[in-house]
Specification:
Elements lengths: L2 H14 L4 H18 L8 H14 L4 H18 L24 H19 L2
Length: 127
């Protein structure tokens, strides 16, 4: 199958499943970039190619983990729904969100943190 045919199938399967237009556009774009990176259609590529590509995005292009997770989701959709050859999830891990606090807390956030600390202290005192 050609690269263009795969991209058409991505669009068709996304529309069939009712993906949001922005999600469908991004999936189409990420699949196109993946195929262009290797110069081959995705059906000629395998799990090791996906792993190498995601590694390249993280450490070569230095994309943030959240951005790479979006590409990961697009490639999972490609292989599972379009090519009907699911990737093994444990071999292609997702990073998830990092839970960092903002550098400067608002007044309401400060009050919330103080209240949570008091509650935690009160709870542990009576345990």
């Amino acid at each position: 199958m050609t690269r263009e045919a795969i991209l058409e199938r991505v669009r068709f399967q996304g529309e069939l499943r009712g993906l949001a237009p922005s999600t469908l556009h991004n999936y189409w774009l990420y699949v196109r970039q993946y195929q262009n990176h290797y110069g081959k259609p995705a059906d000629e590529l395998g799990i090791s190619d996906v792993q190498k590509y995601l590694h390249h995005l993280l450490y070569g292009r230095k994309l943030k983990k959240g951005s790479v997770d979006l590409v990961n989701a697009a490639l999972r959709f490609l292989y599972r729904r379009v090519l009907e050859t699911p990737l093994e999830g444990e071999k292609i891990p997702r990073h998830g969100k990092s839970h960092r606090l903002p550098g400067i807390l608002s007044r309401d956030e400060k009050c919330c943190v103080c209240w949570m600390q008091r509650e935690a202290c009160a709870t542990s005192a009576f345990s």
